[in-house]
Amino acid sequence: MKNVILHILKRIGASVVTVFVISLIIFIGVELLPGDVADTVLGQSATPETVEAFRKELKLDLPPHIRYVAWLKNFVQGDFGNSLANKRPVAELISWRFSNTLFLAATTALIAVPLAILLGILAAFYRNTLYDKVISTTTLSFISFPEFFVAYILIALFSVKMELFPSIAMIDPHMGLGRKFYTILLPALTLTCVVTAHMMRQTRAAIINVLASAYIEMAEIKGIRRLRIIIHHAFPNSLSPVINVVAVNLAYLVVGVVIVEVVFVYPGLGQLLVDSVAKRDLPVVQASGLIFSITYIGLNLLADVLSMLSNPKLRQSQF
Amino acid sequence: MTNLLEIKNLYIEAYSEEVWQPIVKDISLTLKKGEVLGLIGESGAGKSTIGLAAMGYTRQGCRLASGSILLDGVELLGASDEDLRVVRGSKIAYVAQSAAASFNPSHRIIRQHVEAPVQHGIMSYSEAQKEAIKIYRRLFLPDPEKIGFRYPHELSGGQLQRAMVAMAMSCEPQIIVFDEPTTALDVTTQIEVLAAVKEITEKMNKAALYITHDLAVVAQVAHRIMVLRNGRLVEEGETRALIRKPRQAYTRELLNVRSLREDKNQSDKMDVILTIKDVAATYTGEENVLEDINLTVRKGRTVALVGESGSGKSTLARVITGLLPAIEGSINFLGEDLPLELKHRTKDNLRRLQMIYQMPDTALNPKQTVRRVIGRPLEFYFNMRGKKADARIRELLSSIELEPDTYINRMTTELSGGEKQRICIARALAARPDLIICDEVTSALDQLVAEGILDLLQDLQNKTDISYLFITHDLATVKAISDKIVIMLEGKIIEQGEKKKVLSPPHHEYTDKLLSSIPEMDPDWLDNLLDERLDSFI
């Protein structure tokens, strides 16, 4: 057990290093954006004097490495700077948006992950039957359509035709939890359609892969029922790839859902990021980028640790 | 007594090349209560297929074509999946060849043990657990109260195999099918498992089908033996009668494979070509896997390197070839010190020291023809191309007893296991080496095929005075081919010397255990040995 903890600590260390590298890339990337921020923000009123003053205010006159260190130092302390567009603290802008993004991602995960794993297990159980083919074809068609297309179809069906759910997922902090779920159901369903296929197919493949093992044959020869063999013998041994694909999809739900947010006018972080890029609101862009990367790396780290703990051999081995 | 199992005119077919082809042809057998029937033959003889068919089970791509399988009066051929499921595990159980692969790595041993009785509704979970511990004790597993609560990877190969024998007993079935339960084990661990098998068949009076390719092993446990070849019965008889007086030529061949070769004279007059001095090696940098290794190989002689798996035999081969540089000591080859690291060796160093591996399947590139495989070292070491190379390849093929015209343009995948190993030998010979390291070269092959390979190596040595360092865990092979024997245990050499000296007493304690563990054709050998060891234990 001691070795496992040591190994996990090492992985965490590696993740922290990765975050640093990414913060550097984000910073350099933003630096490389063409044009001068002060010019763009000031627009018509840009005279040499105002530009100079503005640059000073933003500390753009300092060399990049000093600005990078200052930015990172403040970021670690929770101070993300002020927005250029409306002068409000970035942390304030982001926290509400980010919690919305997490809420949508969590709701989707709650529907999609159990659904995908169940479908995957069933598809493996009914391998090469009509049922298997129907599931595979349906889920595959859903990922083949662009997200916005699925979103508009759902809107057309459920809010225009049947008038069951709102087409705009505008939530505010004063809503009750039930109300919130109701409001975001359509975007959550859209995202479910997008991520289920991937996870389901990976679950199916991982289980079928394991079904060729000698211990599965042994279980069959022991006279164990097929469904129990799949759930009890095959599934635990296919956990590692399943955990990894779930983590990648969760990360996607957090960082990659801009289009769905835009279609449903959902106040998430992705939309804020896109707006801020358009407005050259650099502090917001940098902070969002870094938060996205931390989420992504964190989820992958979690997946690694979980898949290691799911394997008794790794759990007890000497690293 | 009535027959527990009665198989009549059974045909089993496999789907290959788009047609159903018979792989088991017209097999009939009966098994009475308390009887052990040995099924013996080389791979492809259909032994395992018959063993599984006794449970109404076929592997993917196979089907029970016709005939009848009566288990305790119930017809299994054509029975529904659910009817078969009820029988499997409860009335007839199976012990597979590789326990390491057949235990689910995710669950504790005992959880897998109790699964069958609980799922078949025979016992409750806690009852089954108590029974499990009882049978663990009966099969001499260490720490029977607790061993079941470990995961499969925490047990040794022999323990795991015994745990699987125990698992087969979990529902108190009437018949157990043992499918090569000791093939993957060292001779010393094989004894433990054979003792467990005896406990079940003799003391607990269970009927069993015992499948193996080793006649000496089956002679210890079976009352009757059926010899199979290519899915057909060759002959059947009482164990003693069959061993004493085999009627068929094929059975005689199987019996004769363990013949000794005559000793060479004046073996210490030949030049020493390889001297290993005080060599030590490590994988981790902390613990040495090899220590104080000293040995010599003479020209035209065979040194056998013997030991259990994990004793460091193959590691020593890696050290000699430079793949794993030694951290101490020196290796002198043909009068000069070899650089310890592979990358510092000259082309000529490399050429004179060749290697043949255990798995010919993985040692040959599946995308290449025989011509390319053998032609490559000719080009690399001698810059030989075109007609000259062609002639040499044909010469080499003739020397390994393969017809050049038939084989030269074949893909390596179109060869049998024995033919592949011959090609590996030809590839090594192409470099005109002085020493070939043979790493378990016959252990993946069937007995008769292995015999052919050993004969070939012997012939080549007589003709060319080549030396072999022969790594093996099979003492029968050692007896057959070596001039000198080196015995390794836990990374050290514990005994070495001329074959006669090592094989005749007094032995080192471990050598004695190794030697006495080799099964002999005598059906009483195991009983006597177990009695002897029990006596000395008390």
Quick tags:
heterodimer; A: 319 residues; mainly alpha; MetI-like fold; 16 helices; 0% strand; B: 538 residues; alpha/beta; Rossmann fold; 2 domains; 6-stranded mixed beta sheet; globular
Can you walk through the features of this model?
The complex is a heterodimer of chains A (319) and B (538). Chain A is mostly helical and 319 residues long. Helices cover 76% and strands 0% of the residues of chain A. Chain A has a domain at 103-281: MetI-like (MetI-like fold). In chain A, helix 12 (239-255) runs antiparallel to helix 15 and helix 14 packs antiparallel against helix 15. Chain A is globular, with a radius of gyration of 24 Å. Chain B has 538 residues and is α/β, with parallel strands linked by helices. Chain B is built from 23 helices and 20 strands. The longest helix of chain B has 18 residues, at 447-464. The radius of gyration of chain B is 25 Å and the shape is globular. Chain B starts with a strand and ends with a helix. The mean pLDDT of chain B is 87. The chains are: A mainly alpha (319), B alpha/beta (538). The A-B interface holds A 213-215, 217-225, 228, 233, 236-237, 310-313, 316 and B 52, 55, 57, 59, 84-90, 93-94, 96, 98, 101-107, 115-116, 119-120, 151, 153-154.
